[in-house]
Amino acid sequence: MVMATIVLLGSTASFASCAANDDNSIEKISQPTIDRIQKRGTILIGTTGDYRPLSFREDDGHYWGFGIEMAGEIAKRLGVEVQFVPTSWPTLSADVLAEPQTFDLAIGGITITDARRETMLMSEGYLANGKTILCRASEADRYQSLADINKPEVRVMVNPGGLNEKFANENLTSATIIVHPKNEEIPSLIAEGEADVMITEITEAPYYTQADSRLAAPLLNKPFTHGEIGVLMRKGQDDLLELVNDVIRKMKIDGSLRQLHEKYGLVYTY
User: Fold this and answer.
1) pTM (2 decimals)?
2) Strand locations in the chain, DSSP E?
3) For residue range 45-78, what is the model confidence (pLDDT) as tens digits?
4) Which of 131, 165, 230, 260 holds its CA 20 to 30 A away from the CA of 266?
C-alpha cells in the first residue's frame, strides 16, 4: 500500500501543487471559497486518521488511505497543496462549524446522513458503506444476526462519538457496550479477547480480516444498514461543494474511482 507523506498544520504536504488547466478549471461566476483556498495555496482538510483503509495517520505523521487520495484529487483540481488537520469523531461536527474556521472540508469515512445535512453540506457519495461486525474467527458461527449480538453476555466495543456508538446504543440495548477511545485499537482488542464484537463498517472490516487471521466479519455481505460516504463541509461553501461533486462525478466516468476501490479492496457499486 502506498503511503502519502502529509505533515500537520504549519508544515508542507507532499501533494505537489499543480496549476489547474483550462479543462479542469471551475467557471468563475461566484466562488468565494475557492478563491480563498487558491489565494492561500493550500486546502485545509480535516480527517480523523484512525480509520483504515480510508484515513490513517502513522506514528511518523504520514497519512494514507482511500479518503486521503480523494483529498489529493480535490487539491489537484484546485491547483493547491494539501494540509491535513486532525479531528475526531466526537468533535467532527463542532470542528466543521468552528469559528474561526478550522478547515475547509472533512474527509475519510464520513457517512452521509440527513442530520448532518441539516446543519452542514455533504457531497455526493463516493463509497458505499453499512454497519457490520468484527469478531474472533473462532466465534464467527456464533454471530449470524443482530439478535445473536444483542445479549447481556456479548461485549460490544465501539469508538466514542460516531455513528458506530449511536448504532450500538439504539440497536443493542441488551448487550454490554464498551466504549474505547481509539478506533484503530479495537480490532486487536477483539482478537485478544478484551471484547467480543466490534461495530464497524463494510469499508473497514475487510482490511482487518486480511491483516489479522484471528478476526472475522461473518455478516460482511449482510450489513445492518446501507449508506454512502461523502465529503463534509460547512454551509455557505456551495462553490467548493460543486467542485468536489464534479471531481467525484468525473472519477466515476473516467474509471479512476473504480481503480481506487480496487486498490483498497473495496466493493464498487457505481
Assistant:
1) 0.79
2) 42-47, 50-51, 55-57, 63-64, 81-86, 105-106, 120-122, 127-129, 131-136, 155-158, 176-179, 197-201, 215-216, 227-229, 232-234
3) 999 999 999 999 999 999 999 999 999 999 999 9
4) 165
